[in-house]
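Hi there. Long-time user, first ticket. I'm pasting a complex I've been working with (about 344 residues overall). I'd like to know whether the download I got is complete or cut off, because the file seemed smaller than I expected. Thanks.
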Amino acid sequence: MAHNVMWIIVGMGLVTYIPRMLPLVAIQTDRIPPFVQAVLKNVPFAVLGALIFPGILVIQSGHLSGITMSDFLFGVLGGGVAFITAFLEWNIVFVVLSAIVVLMIYSIWF
Amino acid sequence: MTQKPRAGYQKGLKAGLPIAIGYLPIALTFGLLSKTYHLSLYDSVGMSLMVFAGASQLMALPMIAMGSSGIELILATFIINIRHLLMSASINEKACPEPKWKKAIYAFGITDETFSVASLSDETISSSYMFGLITMAYGSWVVNTALGFIIGANLPHVLQKSMSIALYAMFIGLVVPSLKKQRKVVFLFIGSALLSSIFSLFLSMGWAIVGATLVSSIGVEAIFYKKGRLKHGS
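Hi, the file is complete. Here it is re-exported in full:
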């Protein structure tokens, strides 16, 4: 059993590594058409939209179909604090810490 | 590559701090859960060392316990992590030219979080910067996996719950300064957020992210590209 699990882990590692590695070693940037280059430069901002939503609204339930009001409020409060402190251009470590602290106070009181 | 490697490494370490905080509760949970699913310490830490991908590691635990075949698990992992193909291609646009073996090494550490921090920072993406960033993120991931397993306890419930906001708060902290500056970013961000919420209703998380990112990046570019050409053209 233990031996078997180790091989599964190695396989999981390989299929995780390959998509991360291939574009970096195989793509020659100067051969990409300008439109595709522009699209690739858009990717980080679009990825962040998809990473934050719907995830932040369903931290406990994990899926939009199982969303609860307390789950929703928890995400909106934490996200709101992060948005405000980030808008005020706080250092990102303090953006993260402020969201955690406000949610701790909220969880203890409610 | 004007900066010294050491300076780049230190900047990377510093930039990785919010990731290290955000990984703490997830890695602790993974370590603890893998014990309850009867993995050995070596398997648990080995998985964090070799895979370094939160969502697929957490998915793997019940699958291993249910006796899923290796092929099934590896295929599921591949599908969840195929989104990094897109992130890696995007980071390649911004990365400074360096020997391929160096890029192949830091490619190992490209996660949703290291990708987001690196591509939205003002720093040049050099291998030294990426090594610093990844040292911090990977270090937190592996060490906290081991702690979760060995100590066998989570953080106090209130802290654990509150800390689950950390990575989301970091993502917000990364994107807000760009949202303030460029209108195009607002369209990219909101478009993708809406699409992924819709896609998540019938697709798994990996595909919802890939689909939303692609449609939003291409769609918004199609609008702005045309505008830009009209402006600059004859």
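A couple of notes from our side: The mean pLDDT of chain B is 93. The CA atoms of residues 41 and 214 of chain B lie 39 Å apart.
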